[in-house]
TrEMBL record:
Keyword Cytoplasm: no
Extent of the signal sequence: 1-22
Segments passing through the bilayer: 347-369
Domain Protein kinase residue range list: 405-676
GO MF entries: ATP binding; calcium ion binding; protein serine/threonine kinase activity
InterPro entries: EGF, EGF-like_Ca-bd_dom, Kinase-like_dom_sf, Prot_kinase_dom, Protein_kinase_ATP_BS, Ser/Thr_kinase_AS, WAK-like
Keyword field: ATP-binding, Disulfide bond, Kinase, Membrane, Nucleotide-binding, Signal, Transferase, Transmembrane, Transmembrane helix
Sites where the protein binds ATP: 433
Pfam families reported in the protein's UniProt record: Pkinase
Keyword rRNA-binding listed: no
GO process annotations (BP): cell surface receptor signaling pathway
Record organism: Panicum miliaceum
UniProt-listed SMART domains: EGF (SM00181), EGF_CA (SM00179), S_TKc (SM00220)
Protein's name according to its UniProt entry: Wall-associated receptor kinase 2-like
Amino acid sequence: MSPALLLLPALLLAALASPVEPGCPTKCSSVDIPYPFGIGAGCSRGKGFEIPYVDNGSTAVLPSVKQRIPIMRLSVAPPEVKVMLPVAYRCYNLTSGEATGLSFHGQVDVNTHGVCRISDARNMFVVLGCNTLAYTKNSDSKGKGRYDYVYYTGCVAYCNDSHSAQNGQCVGVGCCHVDIAPGLTDNSVTFAEWEHEDMAYSPCDYAFLVDKQFYNFQVYHLHMDVNRTSMPVWLDWAIRDDGGALSCAAAKNRTRYACVSPNSECVDSVNGLGYYCRCKTGYEGNPYQAGKGCTNITECTRPEEFSCFGVCKDIDGSYDCKCHQGYQPNGDPKKPCSPKFPLNAQLALGISLGMLVLVVTLLVTLMVLHKKGMKESFKRNGGSVLQKVENIKIFTKEELNQITKNYSHILGKGGFGKVYKGTLEDNTMIAVKASIKVNEARKEDFTNEVIIQSQMIHKNIIKLLGCCLEVDVPMLVYEFAANGNLHDVLHGEANHQLPLSLDLRLGIAIESSEGLKYMHLSTNRTIRHGDVKPANILLDDNFMPNISDFGTSKLLTVDKDFTMFVVGSMGYIDHVFHKTGHLTQKSDVYSFGVVLLELICRKPTIYHRNCSLIIEFQRVYEQENSGRAMFDKDIAVTEEDVLVLEEIGRLAIECLKEKVEDRPDMKEVAERLVMLRRARKNRSWNLRSPHHFEEISIDGALKSFATDISGRSSATPSAPSTPMSK
């Protein structure tokens, strides 16, 4: 037989194992799409693996013909998919307790083409409510057996009164949870018909599948906004050709056997019938691709994973570690080799050399290692790039020790570690804080972030003065803010709270908005902060605000309008970003709306144990068309004060709107706050209506601005009674 004929089966197998079409996309937004999955015809294994993407290519969804299920992460090893699934609910009349008809039973089918199963190992079923029994039913039995469905499970949640439920406690009071079984492909929730009369603290029953590591019950979840809430759920996937009946033993003899890499192996699925592939020990990559599948791991370049205290030599699929000359293995490869010399010989040799030689050698070694470690840290942290940047100073480790007096004065604790106070030679006060730990994968992101921060020159953005790169975790040096952060000033201990006038708070709001506007519009690369909150607004000795903490920011090029997986602070995160993973300028606007509410109400986002500032403020406006009941009494003194607070409150409501396109941009927010301060300064108010004020501009032109609770404008608003007359 000719060599060409011998090679033909291997070529056919490679063709079946890899995408047919060249140039197949491997990413949808920031979600990797590895083979056997793919985007477009000819790029995937077939049905169940061809990933659609929607929203002009910005969102990958599960291949389901019934529902749009967004994909957040897709992985070959391990074989899993992270998706966002809706919450089931049924709501009740707050007085009579009767069902209002507002309900959804959470129906979802992740198994349209037989590929995916709901992971029993990583998910749980959660029920929320105060007189609630709910259970999920899965997998239509198709008339086989006693019941309509193959599987049922659920639990009961109750509350004795409105104070029974506790944050973080999902043990039956307000919240309960149960594990689920393997093999599940769908979900449908049933709620029991239980009494809900006079239970305003629990207006709805909720039930949902959710990642066990993600969910932490909070009391305010009993007032969940079902229209804006979905939960992360993990799916297991496997190769289930021919109806999913194939095990590894049966699949190896089939033409479309998926484990085509020579260094791959087959594993039977533990979540339903079928199998998946993985690289053998000592190899990594994609076992479903023949040509560029599982490749050898170079263990000797990864000492943190593969320990070797001697001479390391890489071999195909493994590595060899031999002790240095004069040493021998001690039976444990994770421990250093032992000297071959007998103990008596070691003692005699040590004494003969003398203590002096030992001390000198030790000191020299420590100095060499220390200098070598600093050079390696400097290089790893991007020093070769950052030392060329003109407007930042590269501090040495010794200089930083002197400036901070060996890190003796702690100002507070930031997102990545402690923040220290320091003093430069010219007596300028500074703040020194740790950045992220940098590796080869993060080096470019870190250096770009430092360069961009150094180029942001604005009076309302904290100035980056320099950095120290000779340490394991790079340290960033910022200008000092004498009055700390806005959160501590607003919500610190009552007996230490500073009096803040309305004018001062309005000034803080204006200057903060100007800093965010600059970040959005005035730099050569668009920046989304991603974590706008009072704790990240620092105040100098004149209470001038400075936007800080760019550790969660993302730099976007002009041809993109979102980024993915930015972690912000709960209570300030835009619900649209939380659902979709897309961070836009309007996400920062949403967070700034929460900051405005805290400024005018002087209440944190969660107060009185379980009260949500956003929910309570919106409820008051819906009922009274005024936020008077929520305003800080220290600044709501005169009729003019109340009018200013009303306008700030309405602006905050617009920033918090659910539809992103209905929110103002940060430029408009800043302009409206400036207009409000100018009108207050000129005392040019129309007291006929709390919804209307007039301002005489510098050139004498008359400008008017009117808004209602939904954000609509009117040139001739109605004139109800003023808030002071209510």
